[in-house]
Records
---
Amino acid sequence: MTSTTIAQLKARYRDGSISKQDFIREALDVHRALFQYMDVIQTTDIREIRIGADSVVVSGEGVHRLSAVTDETIETNYVFLHHEAHAEKIARLVSAA
């Protein structure tokens, strides 16, 4: 697995460090972790996870829209990590999978 974030990859593409073809190839590697959720959520009450421009939506028994995780966020048995604030933790979790 890669420890490159999609934001870092996008910055490299924008500044011309990598070609469009390399961006697409490396982005697919970054996105590979998303496909693991299809198997994982089979045994949970989560039915769908949608990533939008302004939030992440987790739906199952109910729908939970998150635009940010703050001190007021109610704890659940789900784990929510911010892509920038928790980048190192996400990388460790993904590499351990």
---
Amino acid sequence: MWDYERLQEIIKNPSAANLLNSSSILRKLLCDTNPLVHQANRNAKIKIQFQVSEYGITREDDPIFEGSRGGIQYLSQIDSLCPGNFDENTNIVQLNLDSFLSTKVVFIRGRMVSVLELIKYLSDNAGGVHKDKPSKESSKLLEGLGINHYVGGVPAPLRIILSVCQVVSVALFPLYKWIKA
């Protein structure tokens, strides 16, 4: 419950430090071996669904947001991933946790990067939980993106994680209400 409430605070105040800290919350809730969301949902048995735009990033010539600086070209959904930013023409898909974590949110130098890879990079390499030199290709690409590209005053990977936080917030709200009741 506290993690959900902290996520709400981060969404309301998306500073760079808060967004980086969101990666530790998202990792605990969604990505660890026994994610907190599964533990919290054992008794409630609520069908948790993550609502995202069906479009996603599917190929190099499908930009929703495009940038190029410092030799790094990238495409990202940024705000179009999250429910509050859909327009009436947007087709929304409901995803389970595994499908959501595998959703591609950024295309960097010919490589698609998933929600899971973004969370893991920010938590394990960028300082959300640990600060360590990236060893995985996706983490190295995200590090370069963060150094060279800022969106809304924060490194691009942090801006993208804000949309992930918003999707997770909507998905976990029914479970939060059940726990609080």
